[in-house]
Design goal:
Shape: globular
Structural class: alpha+beta
CATH architecture of the domain at 53-262: Alpha-Beta Complex
CATH class of the domain at 53-262: Alpha Beta
Distance between the termini: 32 Å
Largest sheet: 7 strands, mixed
CATH topology of the domain at 53-262: Dipeptide-binding Protein, domain 1
Number of strands: 21
Radius of gyration: 23 Å
Strand content: 15-25%
Oligomer: single chain
CATH superfamily of the domain at 53-262: Dipeptide-binding Protein, Domain 1
Helix content: 25-40%
Number of helices: 19
Length: 557
């Protein structure tokens, strides 16, 4: 997930509540017993949080980032929802899917007691409409094609304008029976159904709202544990909103929180002050605050399978040179970055797939352990690559535009990386733009950058979620990288080898080596987050796919 343009998310994260890893944390303030006691129920069930940026959109067809998926996940419900072990559990689905022997047809029965916030029942057609809308080229969705092309039957042809949207492989057999037809047997499809792009939409309501749909909480319907209130990004108070318990939610008895209040706060110091005065219940910490608060009872860290890296836009002539890219990737002091700038348990990343995420289907060995460190810090080698690249380009100096975030942590990291690059690579000049999250997204989509500090969290549990986005045809490919050998390996893994798990995994391992040898991206670190987190907050489930946390079963002790 762009989980979408990262650094700013990182910041957001450092400040707020963020995305996570399948490994999850072991702190009871994040995950705990989901059943409250009689004593707990008498406590005011109000949670106060901060985010580092506004919600860019609440249209599930248009969402691409963690912040949007976080609040979609709290106010909406799809067929399945991830539990604390990152296993899909029935939500709007009444049970597990019936899957044909060839793995191509999935029949899912829907529960008959799920309703929208206007009283309409949630039906199979709500999924058909939403998924068709996501792949319809007129919608302009980024994640619809990214998540559905090559997965749902005919999705790619529809998105290319070659077939009508009615040909998509999803059908409402009845109000409570959904038939899904896949292009091929996709091994991770069950977990994919928990992702925000696959949420349902009420066709009559969306059609009635027209261009106003999802512009504010007044233009939305909800079917999840909470409803989104007072959200209006163009109103008088765009930096505050709330989630209120949805009494019409099918599983409302499991929801103990009455209200979640959210404010946008970009400065870590402000968030910490709000925490210390009792106004919020969680605050993300940057390095200086980690040193101050580590060891306290309410201090906790959360490791996760989220990677941060520099995207290198090869539309820039200098970055089109492999030696220049290698020089940039190898000149950053990554260990000092995680130890000093972050100081929150994050670890150095030297590949494109995180550690402790997936294992080899035969040997059980971790992906990262098999491929090892592929693109490491080596400042002396970086200088040699740089000199060679300049000679090949016939220039003595290079100017690059660096796209960064506008939060405290983002600016600290960007300043450090800029210092490393300009200090180690003679003749390099960097122009930094520190912009809000929403602008980061739009500039990324327009390839309006040379270097971008970005990041990704998984959309499903499979190496493909990390590697497919670097193919030349990926909607996420905004940095103009293309390697036919890499494309072929990923294509084969997702087609001819889709039912051959060992061979498929080997393709992914080889593809990552090519990506790192090309220095298509410059891996920097795998994130862990440090927080001050009230020990009275229980039952929060960490979600590594799309959103960060699930508050459905959270409560205040």
């Amino acid at each position: 997930m762009r989980k979408s343009n990262w650094l700013l998310l990182v910041l957001a994260l450092a400040l707020s509540m963020f995305l996570a890893a399948c490994s999850g944390g072991d702190d009871t303030s994040e995950t705990g017993d989901t059943e409250g006691t009689e004593e707990e129920s008498s406590t005011e069930q109000v949670l106060n949080l901060v985010e580092a940026s506004q919600i860019p959109t609440m249209d599930s067809s248009q969402a691409t980032d963690q912040v949007a998926f976080q609040f979609l996940g709290e106010s909406m419900e799809g067929l399945y929802r991830l539990d604390e072990d990152v296993v899909p559990q029935p939500a709007i689905a009444a049970g597990e899917p019936e899957i044909s022997e060839d793995g191509l047809e999935w029949t899912i029965t829907l529960r008959d007691d799920a309703v929208w916030s206007n009283g309409d029942p949630v039906t199979a057609n709500d999924f058909v409409f939403a998924w068709r809308r996501a792949v319809n080229p007129e919608t302009g969705s980024e994640y619809g094609p990214f998540m559905m092309n090559g997965v749902l039957k005919n999705a790619e042809a529809i998105n290319n304008g070659e077939l009508d949207i009615e040909e998509l492989g999803v059908e409402a057999v009845s109000d409570t029976e959904l038939l899904i037809t896949l292009e091929k047997a996709v091994p991770y499809f069950h977990s994919l159904l928990t992702f925000g792009t696959f949420l349902p939409l009420n066709e009559a309501f969306v059609t009635e709202q027209g261009e106003d749909y999802a512009l504010s909480s007044d233009n939305l319907l909800f079917n999840g544990p909470f409803t989104l209130n007072d959200w209006n990004p163009t109103g008088d108070n765009p930096d505050q909103w709330s989630l209120v318990k949805n009494e019409d939610y099918w599983d409302a008895e499991s929801v103990q929180l009455e209200t979640i209040n959210v404010s946008v706060v970009k400065e870590t110091s402000t968030a910490v002050n709000l925490y210390n005065t009792g106004e919020i219940d969680r605050a993300g910490l940057t390095a200086e605050f980690v040193e101050q608060y580590a060891g306290q009872e309410d201090y906790t860290t959360l490791p996760e399978p989220t990677l941060f890296y520099l995207k290198l836009n090869q539309d820039n002539e200098a970055l089109g040179n492999k030696n220049i890219r290698k020089a940039i990737a190898m000149s950053i002091g990554k260990q000092d970055l995680v130890d000093v700038i972050l100081a929150n348990g994050s670890v150095v990343s030297n590949g494109a797939v995180p550690q402790d995420f997936t294992t080899h289907p035969e040997s059980g060995e971790d992906f990262r352990a098999i491929n090892g460190d592929l693109l490491t810090e080596d400042q002396e080698a970086a200088k040699e690559y740089w000199a060679t690249g300049l000679e090949e380009l016939g220039v003595e100096s290079v100017e690059l535009r660096y796209l960064g975030g506008d939060t405290d942590l983002g600016q600290d990291m960007d300043a450090y990386i800029m210092d490393q690059l300009q200090g180690n690579l003679e003749g390099l000049t960097i122009e930094l733009s520190s912009v809000p999250f929403e602008e980061r997204i739009s500039r990324d989509e327009a390839s309006d950058y040379d270097i971008q500090n970005s990041g990704w969290g998984p959309d499903y549990i499979d190496p493909n979620t990390w590697l497919e986005m670097w193919t030349s045809t990926s909607p996420y490919m905004t940095m103009n990288y293309e390697n036919p050998e890499y494309d072929a390996l990923i294509s084969e893994a997702n087609n001819e080898l889709i039912t051959e798990p060992v061979e498929r995994y080997e393709n992914f391992l080889e593809a990552e080596k090519i990506l790192m040898d090309d220095a298509a991206i410059a891996p920097v670190y795998q994130r862990s987050r440090a927080y001050l987190w009230r020990t009275s907050v229980k039952g929060v489930v960490f979600n590594p796919m799309g959103a960060d946390f699930s508050y459905k079963n959270a409560y205040i002790e």
